[in-house]
Amino acid sequence: MEIAGRNEVVLHKKRIASIDILRGLVMLLMTVDHVRERFFYHLNVSDPMDIDTTSPQLFFTRITAHFCAPVFVFLTGLSAWLYANPPGKSSRSATGFLFKRGVFIIFIEIAVINWLWSGTYQTLWLQVMWAIGISMVFLSLLSKLPAKAILLLGFTIVFGHNLLSPITFDPSDTGYALWSFLHQKGFIYTSEVFRIKISYPVLPWIGVILLGFSMGPVYAQSMQSQTRKKVLLTSVCSMWMLLILLRSTNFYGEPNLFEVQENTIQTVMSFINFTKYPPSLDFLLFTLAGAFLVLYLLENVDNRLSKWVETFGSAPMFYYIVHLTVLLVSYRVALAIMGPNYGDMLVFGDLWQVWFVAAILVCLLYVPTKAFSAFKRQSKNPLIKYF
What is the pLDDT of residues 51-64, one digit of tens each? Predict the structure, then answer.
């Protein structure tokens, strides 16, 4: 282990701890949301949420999960730059690494994760892992462009894609499948026995991964910690100022308009009630600014709690698959033993139970995740590294 001084980023086994800690934090938030989707689905939420029918407790529980996908995709781009620019070594191409890993993630989404969500294979849901995999494939091609071109393209997509929102296609229209792939979620194939739905249109996520790749030099070994923290904090302030301006005026960046409500809590809910599918500019400003703030705060953090959280971020694919498996099996067993209590579903009566079960699940999976993380570091099998 290498522990950094006051002006250096904390490194663990040549990994940047703050990145893994942030990834671990969003894995924990993701767990809460997945328990909610398994045991609290009778009070499902829309996108954006209906603040007239969604309780503040459920609303803010769902909001915490909004940080997951942007952080996953952004850190994937950042990690790709770090792979291409290893400290103390010559730069190398990330094209093959990104392409192979992207295809692998798409395969895992289709063959494994999709089944773990429902225990059936009647519908293929192309969701967050699909978006990450596709974004990696695109980045594998675009990473050869000059750094300024990658940054400009990322900014153009993230800041400009909301201009495309008025463009919609009906399922019968030519180009519907392509547009669903890029910007309009929907079913691209339906039959009596099987359907395919793109839940995560990929265009905005390609922009996010490009920005993550462009952020890589901020985490170069030559970058001083204080300079990096200044960049992160400046980015946070700039993004939040822009968000406040855009959101308070409803000028641009979010199709779901902000309105002052009858009380403060609902006004706050309306302000941060952003569109996720596809992610609006306001959604990305809100979530990525939050991620940058956490990275700023974690720069020199190195304690037992941070190491505990870091474990989940060091083996994300392993934890993702295992926790979905445990949730599917536990739900099926509980339903068989206790029977349904809401239609044909078994559901929790209170939201606190979702958080409680998520906490238990995280604690149960800590030891196997830690063991796999150690195994992954020691293994020379490139396939194991993908987990």
Answer: 999 999 999 999 99
Dihedral sign of CA atoms 38, 40, 44, 50 in order: negative
CB 276 within 8 A of CB 47: yes
C-beta neighbour count of 160 within 10 angstroms:
13
Instruction: List CB contacts of 307: < 8 A, sequence separation 6 or more.
Output: 12
One-letter amino acid for residue 172 of the chain:
S
pLDDT band at 7 (very low <50, low <70, confident <90, very high): very low
User: What tokens appear for 368 in the block?
Assistant: 């196997």
Q: Can you give the pLDDT at residue 16?
A: 83
- Yes or no: say if 9 and 293 are a contact pair by the CB < 8 Å rule: no
Residues 260-276 have pLDDT tens digits of 999 999 999 999 999 99
From 25, 77, 32, 51, select the one nearest 360 (Cα to Cα): 32
d(CA 386, CA 381): 9
175: left (phi over 0), alpha (psi -120 to 50) or beta: left
Contact (Cβ atoms closer than 8 angstroms) between residue 374 and residue 313? no
> Which residue type sits at 384?
I
Please answer whether residues 156 and 148 qualify as being in contact, where contact means their C-beta atoms are separated by less than 8 angstroms.
Answer: no
